[in-house]
Specification:
Elements (H helix, E strand, L loop, with lengths): L15 H6 L31 E3 H4 L5 H15 L3 E3 L5 H15 L3 H4 L11 E3 L15 E3 L20
Parallel strand pairs: 1-2
Antiparallel strand pairs: 3-4
C-alpha cells in the first residue's frame, strides 16, 4: 500500500444548490465577477465560438496526429476543456454515468453532506481550489474523486467503487 497522498485542498464553501433555493433578489458577492464581461445572451448562435472537438482516433493516426495535437494544445491553452470524440466509450455507459451523476446531485442535502470535502482535502462534494475567504467562487457545486491510481481512492466517497 502506498503512503496516502493528497491532491490538494479547498476551504469549505456553501452549497450553491442550497443558495439557489433561497429567495433573495441578489447573488451573493463572492459569486459576482464585475471584472468579467457579462455573458452575451443571443438567440443567434452562429457568431459564437465553437467548442473544440478532439478526435482520439486522429491522435493515434500518423497522418493526422500532428494537426490533432495542435488542436489539443490550443483547446487546453485557450479553452481549458474540449469535447473528445471517437474515444471508444459506449454511449450506454456514458448515459448511465450521466444519469447517476444527476441522481447524486438530486439527493437531499443531508445525504450529500456525507460526501462533503473534509478539511485539507480536495476530493468530495463542494468546490475545488478555494484558498481564501475573499476568493471569487464559481456558481456551481462539484463532486471530485480520484479513481486511478487505485492507492489514491477514497472508497468512503463512493461506496460501490471497486477497490481494484
Amino acid at each position: 500500500m502506498e503512503a496516502e497522498q493528497s491532491l490538494g485542498s479547498s476551504l469549505p464553501v456553501p452549497c450553491v444548490q442550497e443558495l439557489a433555493k433561497e429567495t433573495t433578489a441578489t447573488v451573493p458577492p463572492r459569486y459576482v465577477r464585475p471584472d468579467q464581461d457579462p455573458p452575451n445572451i443571443s438567440a443567434d448562435t452562429t457568431c459564437l465560438p465553437k467548442l473544440p472537438v478532439i478526435d482520439m482516433q486522429k491522435l493515434f493516426s500518423p497522418e493526422f496526429m500532428d494537426s490533432e495535437l495542435d488542436k489539443f494544445h490550443y483547446a487546453c491553452k485557450e479553452w481549458g476543456f474540449f469535447q473528445l470524440i471517437n474515444h471508444g466509450v459506449s454511449t450506454s455507459l456514458l448515459e448511465k454515468v450521466k444519469l447517476e451523476i444527476q441522481e447524486f446531485f438530486q439527493l437531499p442535502m443531508e445525504e450529500k453532506k456525507k460526501y462533503w470535502q473534509q478539511p485539507g482535502d480536495l476530493e468530495g462534494f463542494g468546490q475545488a481550489f478555494v484558498v481564501s475567504e475573499e476568493q471569487k467562487l464559481d456558481w456551481a457545486d462539484m463532486f471530485y474523486m480520484a479513481s486511478l491510481p487505485t492507492y489514491l481512492r477514497k472508497p468512503h466517497l463512493f461506496p460501490k467503487l471497486p477497490s481494484h
